[in-house]
Design brief:
This protein has 438 residues and is mainly α. It is globular, with a radius of gyration of 22 Å. Strand 1 and strand 2 form a beta hairpin. Helix 4 packs parallel to helix 20, helix 12 packs antiparallel against helix 13 and helix 12 crosses helix 20. It contains 21 helices and 2 strands. The longest helix has 28 residues. The mean pLDDT is 97. It has a two-stranded antiparallel sheet with strand order 1-2. The structure holds nitromethyldethia coenzyme A and D-malate. The site of nitromethyldethia coenzyme A has 21 residues, from loops. GO terms for molecular function: acyltransferase activity, acyl groups converted into alkyl on transfer. Belongs to the citrate synthase family. It holds the Pfam family Citrate_synt.
């Protein structure tokens, strides 16, 4: 059985050839126009970066190497005793474009578990941070500091060849992913349950099985399965989203993967991006506090209007690319619908009822181009139901997941020899001059 690294090594030459052909035969082919609205509108819609593992269709949603979420749920191996696809099997697909066997996925779990222990100085660093520091800030600090042991950085200092970049990047990326559960769980324990003993990493468990254990929810099989699905689903959302794009940009300077991913986490920590999942819970709880548990559709409508009229966004709705309900939202809703105990939860019912009225309200409001829910509209409510109620922590879980896609592209960018990212900017005066002269 081939390992992930060996499989990757096999697929790299064909991709290198594909890029070479694009460069030599199609470098001048035109794939779109740049309009002023792109430049002043956050580059929305501009096709201008290479990203291998997934492509987002506005109506169909995300495809990982062509596979939809339901396809992945069918073919990607689960953990022993589980049903949901694992983070490892998703990583394998993202990195290689191939579906791993159960054996390959298990071997990768073992490798990650064997590399998952945090260096003592990282534990001390995290333990020294104030409990009041946002968990996402702590996660970014921890990830950046892990670069103390960066293989890429030390090989670069010694003068490695460009052809060796990807191998050292790969080593760092695997170590980073392996250490994320212990780092993220330590932050949770310190902030919310200080003083309780954190268990050791279990060499026989998958990444998420270990993460759930370290968080202190080891016996909770339902939460573990939900987290497996959650972490596989959030793994990649093509390259233009703010966190993936940040990792790509920073990585293009040849900063090592720890620094690149730390920067990505701070993009994820913004309320228009990953922090929206904590904001959804906060928004819902404020509504429940005001209106009680059995909220009606009309009351939700009124609350939505109140939010919009006060100039705030409705968290969990809208998207920079999607123009339909996010298939990740649908997959998580289906997880709920298959479990009666979840459907009985007032928090989960509120998500469902909000979905039944919010698109019409947002259409009538007339601003957002996409009045439908994104994944954040539902991702937190199941965590809440299963006892992980501290919603300021939710984006950290997203941060553990998004590493799958970000590290995949870091490896590919170095294997393909992609250059420093450096777009041309213009001032408004320069833009006006250009418009006049065109
Ligand atoms: N509630 C109220 N107004 C909205 C919403 C919303 N959910 N979504 C977009 N708008 C507004 C937006 O603020 C903008 O207003 P203005 O012209 O005054 O600046 C207008 O509608 C047009 O925006 P769009 O072009 O539809 O959206 P854009 O691509 O700029 O932004 C988001 C995408 C996701 C940032 C935006 O929809 C939003 O703020 N949503 C709420 C926050 C959220 O759920 N973010 C999570 C995204 C997913 N993730 O996990 O990262
Ligand atoms: C993501 O998962 O990154 C979000 O849906 C945001 C995006 O794709 O722009």
């Amino acid at each position: 059985t081939k390992t992930l690294r060996e499989t990757l090594q096999d697929v790299i030459p064909a991709k290198q050839e594909q890029l070479k052909k694009l460069k030599t035969e199609h470098a001048q082919a035109v794939v779109g126009d740049i309009k002023v609205e792109n430049i002043i509108g956050g580059m929305r819609g501009l096709k201008s970066m290479l990203w291998e593992a997934s492509v987002l269709d506005p109506n169909e949603g995300i495809r990982f190497h062509g596979l939809t979420i339901p396809d992945c749920q069918k073919v990607l191996p689960p953990a022993p005793g589980g049903k949901e696809m694992t983070a490892e099997s998703m990583l394998w697909l993202l990195m290689t474009g191939q579906v791993p066997t159960a054996e390959q996925s298990r071997q990768l779990s073992q490798e990650l578990a064997s590399k998952g222990q945090l260096p003592a100085f990282i534990e001390q660093l995290i333990d020294s941070l104030p409990q009041t520091l946002h968990p996402m800030t702590q996660l970014g600090i921890g990830v950046a500091a892990l670069n103390h042991d960066s293989s890429f950085q030390s090989a670069y200092e010694k003068g490695m060849k460009k052809s060796e970049y990807w191998t050292h990047t790969y080593e760092d990326c695997i170590n980073l992913l392996a250490r994320l559960p212990a780092l993220a769980a330590r932050i949770y324990r310190n902030v919310y349950h200080p003083g309780k003993e954190i268990p050791a990493i279990d060499k026989d468990l998958d990444l998420v099985g270990n993460y759930t254990n370290l968080l202190g929810f080891g016996g909770n099989k339902n939460l573990t399965e939900y987290l497996r699905l959650y972490i596989a689903l959030h793994g990649d959302h093509e390259g233009g989203n703010a966190s993936a794009h940040t990792s790509h940009l920073v990585g293009s300077t040849l900063a090592d993967p720890y620094l690149a991913y730390s920067a990505a986490l701070y993009a994820l920590a913004g309320p228009l991006h990953g922090l929206a999942n904590q904001e959804v819970l906060r928004w819902q709880q404020a509504m429940q506090k005001e209106l009680g548990d059995n909220v009606t559709h009309d009351q939700i409508k009124e609350y939505l209007w109140k939010t919009l009229k006060s100039g705030q966004v409705v968290p969990g709705y809208g998207h920079g690319v999607l123009r339909q309900a996010d298939p990740r939202f649908i997959a998580l809703q289906e997880f709920c619908e298959s479990r009666p105990e979840l459907m009985a939860s007032s928090t989960i019912q509120l998500v469902k009822k909000t979905y039944e009225v919010a698109p019409d309200v947002l259409k009538e409001h007339g601003k957002t181009k996409n009045p439908y829910p994104n994944v954040d509209a539902t991702s937190g409510c199941v965590l809440y139901h299963y006892g992980l109620t501290e919603y300021k922590y939710y984006t950290v879980i997203f941060g553990v997941s998004r590493a799958l896609g970000a590290i995949t592209q870091l490896v590919w960018s170095r294997a393909l020899g992609l250059p420093l990212e450096r777009p041309k900017s213009l001032s408004m005066d320069a833009l006006e001059k250009l418009i006049k002269s065109s």
